Amino acid sequence: MQDLSGKVALVTGAASGIGRAIAQAYADAGAKVAVADIAADKARDAARSMGPDAIGLAMDVTDEDQVEEGFAQTARELGPVDILVSNAGIQIISPIVDLSYADWKRMLAIHMDGAFLTTRAAMRQMIAAGRGGSIILMGSAHSHVASKFKAPYVAAKHGLLGLARVIAKEGAANGIRANVICPGFVRTPLVEKQIPEQAKELGISEEAVIRDVMLKDTVDGEFTTLEDIADTALFLAGFGSNALTGQSLLVSHGWHMA
Length: 258
Description:
By secondary structure, this protein is of the alpha/beta class. It has eight helices and seven strands; from the N terminus they run E-H-E-H-E-H-E-H-E-H-E-H-H-H-E. It has helices at residues 17-28, 40-49, 64-77, 101-129, 151-171, 189-202, 206-214, 226-238; strands at residues 8-12, 32-37, 54-58, 83-86, 133-138, 176-183, 247-251.
C-alpha cells in the first residue's frame, strides 16, 4: 500500500505544512504529484524539490475556473488524477458575537466549497479514466468536537464528514473511496498563529494555551506531527478496496476517541 508508482495525486494547500508533507510522501512513494496552492511561486518551488514528476499549480480552491484549469493542466502534464487530498484551509479565531459575516463566509468557502469543487473535478477524471481513486478530505479533531472561538472552522470540519460519506456512496460503483483525516494539533504556522490569539481571548499565557487547551486531552501531551498525517494519507491513498470508505481517521494522540 506504500507503493504509488503509476498514480497521479493532486494535493491542495501543498506549498507548506501538512499539504507539503503529504505531497512529498506521495512523491517518495512513486506518485506523480500536482502541488496546488494559492501561493503559486511557493507551489512551484515545492514541486521542484520533489523531482521531475511533480508540477506546481496556482489554485484558489474557491475559484471554480482555477480549480477546473488546475485539474485540466494536471491531466495534460501528468495524467488523470487518481488521488485527491483536499487540504487547503485557514483559521480565524473569534467569538461568535464578534465574528464578521465576511469571515464566516470566507472560512466556509475555503474549507467546504473548496472540498466540493476539487472533489467534483477529481471524480469526473476518475470516472472517465475508469480506474477508481481515493479522495481524502482534511478534517480535524474538530470534525467531532467543538472549541470556543472557532465557529466557522468547527462547522466546516463537521460538514466534511457528511460530504465524504456522500462521495463514498456515489463513488463506490466506480471504485472511488472517500475518507477524512482528522488531525489533532499539528505545530504548523496555522497552529502557531492560534497560540497567541487563544491566549489573548482566554486571558492566559501562551504556555497555558499549549498545555491546558491544545494538548490537555491527549494521552501524552504531545503534538501530532507532519509525519503522522503524511503516513495516514499514504495509507489511505494506497488502500485497495471499498472496505475503507466514508470513514474519519482521528490522528490526535487520543485527544478525541471515536
